[in-house]
Specification:
Helix content is 25%, strand content 37%. The chain has helices spanning 19-40, 51-62, 67-76, 83-96, 121-129, 143-157, 257-262, 264-267, 294-299; strands at 3-8, 47-49, 99-100, 104-114, 133-138, 175-188, 199-204, 210-227, 232-238, 244-251, 274-283, 285-292, 321-333, 337-349, 360-363, 368-374, 377-384. One of its GO terms (molecular function) is serine-type endopeptidase inhibitor activity.
């Protein structure tokens, strides 16, 4: 059995208003909820996932899948089971994924192939044309050098926020290819917090225990919604440029986060906001996570891809299976804005407005959910539960 290594790194996307992309955004929300809920089964603390990063690299892998393997991957990823439709979707995404506007948004795909290993020409064409991927030959027999080279590429593409995604032990004589997607987002709030207003305030870990954290404060006109169905309030904070935003979903009860998470599919849809003057208090936070995704993907019905039953005959002539899928994520939220990066690895065998009068308060002093969205596509999602 030959092996392939697949790695991804994630950030943000802009979507045109087309049927394919509308369908993708619906699936993107479902996949986000699916992964998040599966992750909760083994996680008690903070959560951070980059669903888009996983979708991109697994969709690229799907381009080489055939038969039942392809069907399971499309279903688990909430994508249409049509190579043509998927290629259309990701061709449009690739065109929109890089942006140097008032925020930084970069995405890159790369396929590292073992010297002399024959990759299917059709797969190469899809990788280059639909996913805008670079293809490079590499000597996997020199495990440290190969890992260092791939990690340097990842680090460069995520401005050094994601490092050491791959260890030399992840590569061996059976490795035939490594597929990588790197995404990075950095944005400034449309209305930044004033640093001098940040002060130590309590963050309640539960109804009784708290810890002092750096709490940022401001008053601004923002999109706000009260959601009785999940007993929570929702606040949308835009970044400069206004097409990327971070949404905070805060339960009214200190221990009410579980109710939000139980209704995650609904929560990830934009509610009917009211633009209103909000007195906002949100803690500064930084979260880093490393996630083994294979058990989660198996729970979502993607099973054959990780076994001897895998059919990746559209990628290479030798039998291949996915050995590992690892995602590393980073998010930092402060007074100026947000930095976010993600790396997912799949190892396949072979301001400035007058202060308005306060109308509501939004004090995130207990566990809450958040997500970063561009257009209608979720880039990052997670929760803050501990410091």
């Amino acid at each position: 059995m030959k092996f392939l290594v697949l790695l991804t790194f994630g950030v943000v996307v802009t979507l045109a208003d087309t049927n394919e992309l509308l369908q993708f955004s619906v699936g993107n929300h479902q996949f986000t909820a699916d992964v998040y809920k599966e992750l909760l089964k083994s996680t008690t603390g903070n959560v951070l996932i980059c669903p888009l990063s996983a979708e991109i690299i697994l969709a690229l892998t799907y381009a080489g899948a055939r038969g039942e393997t392809a069907k399971q991957m499309a279903s688990g990823l909430r994508l249409p089971d049509s190579s043509e439709q998927i290629q259309k979707i990701f061709t449009k995404l690739a065109q929109d994924l890089n942006s140097e506007q008032t925020y930084t948004l970069n995405s890159a795909n790369k396929v590292y192939v073992k010297h002399g290993y024959p990759i299917n020409q059709q797969f190469k064409d899809v990788a280059v044309k639909a996913f805008n991927a670079d293809i490079q030959n590499i000597d996997f027999s020199k495990t440290k050098e190969a890992a260092d080279e791939i990690n340097k590429w990842v680090s460069d593409k995520t401005q050094n926020y994601i490092q050491n995604l791959l260890s030399p032990a992840d590569i061996n004589s059976a490795t035939r290819a490594v597929l990588v997607n790197a995404l990075f987002f950095q944005g400034k709030w449309s209305v930044p917090f004033e640093t001098y207003l940040t002060a130590k305030k309590p963050f309640y870990l539960n109804a009784n225990d708290h810890i002092d954290v750096d709490m940022m404060t401001m008053v601004s006109l923002l999109n706000y919604y009260e959601w009785p169905e999940v007993d929570a309030k929702v606040l949308e904070m835009p970044y400069e440029g206004n097409d990327v935003s971070m949404t905070f979903v805060l339960p009214n009860e200190k221990e009410g986060l579980h109710r939000i998470e139980e209704n995650l599919e609904k929560v990830l849809e934009s509610p009917k906001y009211t633009r209103i003057s909000v007195d906002v208090s949100i803690p500064r936070f930084k979260i880093e996570t490393s996630i083994k995704l294979i058990p989660i993907l198996q729970a979502l019905g993607i099973k054959d891809a990780f076994t001897g039953n895998a059919d990746f005959s559209g990628l290479g002539s030798k039998p291949l299976k996915i050995d590992e899928v690892v995602q590393k994520n980073f998010v930092e939220v402060d007074e100026q804005g947000t930095k976010a990066a993600s790396a997912t690895g799949v190892f396949v065998g072979l301001s400035a407005f007058p202060i308005p009068k306060v109308q509501v308060t939004f004090t995130a002093d207990h566990p809450f959910l958040y997500y970063i969205k561009k257009g209608n596509v979720i880039l990052f999602a997670g929760r803050v539960k501990q410091f």
